[in-house]
Task: inverse folding
């Protein structure tokens, strides 16, 4: 049984990415900060990206273990209209 390892790297454009260590494929997750945010976070960018990825993985695990009835919710008409528009997952 092989183990898949992942790494968080800074890309040449300054974005951060989660990728497999053994592949040159597209990153699994890419985090991009605006110029203003980069100025604000300074050298802590990598640690913030790591915390964001950790939180996302934790949320994914929780969603996978939640009973189906806990994940059900209804959208009102405004939310349904907004939901049908193009969205960006943050």
Result:
């Amino acid at each position: 049984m092989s183990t898949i390892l992942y790494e968080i790297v800074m890309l040449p454009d300054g974005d951060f990415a989660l990728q497999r260590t053994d592949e040159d494929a597209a990153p699994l997750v890419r985090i991009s900060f605006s110029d203003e945010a980069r100025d604000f976070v300074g050298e802590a960018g990598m640690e913030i990206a790591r915390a964001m990825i950790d939180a996302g993985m934790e949320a994914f695990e929780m969603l996978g273990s939640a009973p189906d009835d806990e994940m059900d919710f209804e959208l009102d008409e405004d939310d349904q209209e907004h939901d049908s528009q193009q969205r960006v997952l943050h």
Remarks:
- Strands lie at 6-10, 16-20, 29-31.
- The longest helix spans residues 45-65.
- The radius of gyration is 17 Å.
